[in-house]
């Protein structure tokens, strides 16, 4: 059995590979000393951070529990459009597809001045993908204008519903997860639900309610909303339960 995972940083294992978590985790004996980067150069540190992330993210834990092959295509700041692109490209390579929907306001745009595509997540010029680069100033302004003048939540939701409907017509085993609370997703077949007081499906609400995020694990030292180690373990447990029940 082969499973393809798709999504944004919440599926990629975001936060697990951070300098802040490594520092806090080593200091408080929450991370094995084999991941201590104190005497390593910059390149070596990145390799250790990445190794730790890949060993602890939920897709890897699912692979270990079920003894199956897994490929994780998720990318930090990924937009739903680019997630759908990846699913379309890789759908025939796996028996099962598990797709985590990202934040609806994210877009995937071609930017002619730099002849490149960008996943856009923020209107703040210092944030990714601009990172304060003057060559991307116009891109930042365009996205800010888009959010103000042309973004419509219902329109984006309708497009996502259409994508989901079409993919579910394929002769394929597909499961969906949503980080955000989306009322319209309630009737989607094979929706993996993460129940909380404020939502019966949104992974983000569930993670916050159960304090499965780094900001809680580190008592505010690392102010980050990504899933912590426990959160990844619990998501993996939920996915395994769903797959074993099918």
Give the termini distance in whole angstroms.
14 Å
How many structural domains? Answer: 1
What do we call the CATH topology? Rossmann fold
Secondary structural class: alpha/beta
As a whole number of angstroms, the C-alpha radius of gyration is 19 Å
* Weakly predicted, low-confidence segments: none
Q: Per the principal axes of the C-alpha atoms, what is the gross shape?
A: globular
Q: Quick one: biggest sheet?
A: 4 strands, parallel
How many strand units?
6
Strand content: 5-15%
CATH structural class: Alpha Beta
CATH architecture group name: 3-Layer(aba) Sandwich
- How do the helices and strands follow one another from N- to C-terminus? EHHHHEHEEEHHEHHH
Number of helices: 10
Percent of residues in helical segments?
40-55%
Strand order of the largest sheet: 2-1-3-6
What is the arithmetic mean of pLDDT?
A: 97
Characterise the protein shown here.
The chain has 246 residues and is an alpha/beta fold. It has helices at residues 9-12, 19-27, 42-56, 58-66, 80-90, 137-150, 153-167, 203-209, 214-217, 229-245, and strands at 2-6, 69-72, 96-101, 107-111, 116-120, 173-178.
